[in-house]
Amino acid sequence: QVQLVESGGGLVQPGGSLRLSCAASTSFFSIYDMNWYRQAPGKRRELVASITRDDIRSYADSVKGRFTISRDNAKNTVSLQMNSLKLEDTAVYYCNAYQRTNRLNYWGQGTQVTVSS
Questions:
Q1: By C-alpha distance, which of 27, 22, 24 is closest to 8?
Q2: Cα 52 to chain centroid, rounded
């Protein structure tokens, strides 16, 4: 069992920045693909950004050029730097860890990001 704990959410004005972090309780962090999802009220959960165990990054079109995902295998953490935030980025952001071999899937509890003027 892997526990994921997100931090860094909050209230920010449009155009501002936030950095989310997710700490994983596993010694095998490096073998997990790590993802950030978000879910806005009344909407489905959507994939925002991914970083594979091989350090390959991908982003949803809506956040390309504004968000950057990174990982630190020595600290068992994954981060999401969010710049130029928009009102529509308001959502609960969830950290997700996926291990391909055994198809193991873990979720954090979520952190609220609110973009408002």
A1: 22
A2: 13
